[in-house]
Design brief:
globular, alpha+beta, 3-stranded antiparallel sheet, 9 helices, about 15% strand
Length: about 230
Amino acid sequence: MISGADLIITCPHCEALAKVFSIASGNPFGTIGWSDGYRDSPMMPTAPRIARCQSCGKAFWTGQAQSIGYLLPEQGDAQRKPEWQAAPYLEPLDEAGLMNALSEGLGCSAELELELRVAIWWRGNDAFRREDAPVGHATSPEACANMERLIEMMHESDEDLLLFRAEALRHLGRFDEMEETLRGVYCSDYWPAKSRLLELGKAEDRKLRVLFTMELPEEENALNPQG
């Protein structure tokens, strides 16, 4: 992975400066795909879609912030624009932070509410992204209420969202409804995920599971035996 230029934005609320990282190049090796649809790609990180301003404390969608330029240290921008250099990087929000953002009105349309609720779901599941997790999925009342809302919003959705809906139903132990939802998934691209979810449902398994991993090519593993 090679880091790229930092995007400089201003907070939509108070116009305070902030930096957003970028990568110039990356690769998918090391990616782990999870049954809730989240992909952890250490060599292809993405900037946060939702952040909280470190100056005024208000949450905002980063895509709605005004961009004012790029910080390119190799071209001397750090010396010419010290206020850009001093700007803090945007930090991703955890489950509680995203729930607060939702309560503050960031889910102001059905599309934005859905994206925000999926992010809440994923962050709640982060604690269980390991094989020895004792429970295997978020179980707090707030997390369950969020899943119930996702299930409602994804009814009769596109096939990729039906996979999300089926996974939320599986977490809640509603296996018959999960199977019924998966009947709406026909695209061959989604068959491996559909088959795995059906297998887990038949076993009444409610844990978050790994669907796939992308390993380094054999020649790279040979060059890096310690990983």
